[in-house]
Amino acid sequence: MSGDEAKKEDVVNGKSEKQLEVLMWGYFPGVTAQRSPLTSPASVRFPETEVAGDSWKDVCAGGCGFGMALSASGKLVTWGSSDDQGHSYLTSGKHGETPEVYPLPTADPILKVAAGWAHCVSVTDKGEVYTWGWKECVPSVKITRNWTTMKNCEDEIVTRQSSTLTEQVSSPNDAVSGDETPKRRKVAPQQDFETSMAADETLSMPPCPVNLDPGVRITSVAAGGRHTLALSDVGQVWGWGYGGEGQLGLGSRIKMVASPHLIPCIDPSPNGGDSSGVNNQNSGGVAAEQQKSVGNYITSIACGGRHSAVITDAGVLIAFGWGLYGQCGQGNNDDLLRPTCVPSLRDSRIKAVAAGLWHTICICADGRVHAFGGNQFGQLGLGTHPNQCEIAPRLVDASVLEGKKARIASSGARHSAILTEDGKIFCWGWNKYGQLGLGDAMDRNTPAEVTLKEDYTVKNIACGWWHTLSLCEMTQSD
């Protein structure tokens, strides 16, 4: 009996039929009549204009105030990011209040999508990459202003700019300035990252193809504050965008990489770096053995605000970039200009990693969760004081996780989420906009379970900067 025939028979016999649904919670300007955050999970309506028979396939988080998901036919669906005048937020494209297919310049199915605070990136089933948003984040685009000039230009155009913009995109030279100091904001959601259409048109680019070397086929993408990583089918990592803190792993504080460059995440040459890093000073058989233990290729990538993390086929976690809050897990606050192993996790096989604005979380093969970096809103889930950052990985051992194994991790700007093997969602961290899905706006410094309907089986989770999405399988009985 074929699958279709079996499905028809189940319907005739009154058996249950399963379908996928996307749930959202957090800040999606425009999706509610009151234009207020969603503090509990709410269903996302599938685009009415889509062809008959299409349905949800996966969730892809989204950027500041807008969600992203994929349909079964490979269409990119976005929604949420528009202000009272119908303008988009920052320079991430025109995402309407209701879910609609986003117009990309390709008919090929989209397999993966990611979004930072000011740009988006997608990859097709042919391994081709498209990106759009802030000009600095789009490769091979001539930048007519340097970052300082662009920021000054914004200050002149945007008169009601919130402290968040300064906090998240200030110049690297201002990394420890007062504006960068973590603090609870006193602005309405509508003020965050607000910009005028004039600024959007000046500073943004529509979806453009990314030119990679011949033969390079991309399978996954990740978007950070102003940088992008792309993973190829042979386990190589390519990067472009802003690299002032080393988040592009090229060994320098290069301000702008205007075209994709290969990042030496696994370098067998014995040339510098400390013994715990990917590059080591040993030679001969010892170096070969250490190289073997690190792995041969990359299997997973993640971008934080100004740092990056990747996992090798051997389960080794490698980090590079901004280290002010310990988000690279090295036991110090130094920036990492080259990919370097997280030393305390060398004996643990890592299977998943997620990076937020100032923090990193990862999942071991045994389902345990480790967290490190900034903890200003409890985003590490350790139950510690909000201002207590962790410069080395610590186990998230909350009692609610006892006996549970995490399998998927995701991070927003300042909140974290995991999906356990038994289909439970746990969130913690910043909750001003209800992005934890717990029915209130109170921050949590330990994991808390998100309550869903009994007929939902969670398949995936994805955190945007101020929101969370989940893909659920819903059982319906005739």
TrEMBL record:
Pfam families for this protein: RCC1_2, WD40_RLD
Sequence ranges assigned to domain RCC1-like in this UniProt record: 207-469
Domain of life according to the entry: Eukaryota
Compositionally skewed regions (Polar residues) per UniProt: 161-174
Repeat positions for RCC: 74-126, 235-314, 315-366, 367-422, 423-474
UniProt key word Protein transport: no
Record-given protein name: Regulator of chromosome condensation family protein
SUPFAM superfamilies: RCC1/BLIP-II
Disordered, as annotated region: 161-190
TM region(s), chain numbering: none
Keywords of this entry: Repeat
Keyword Repeat attributed: yes
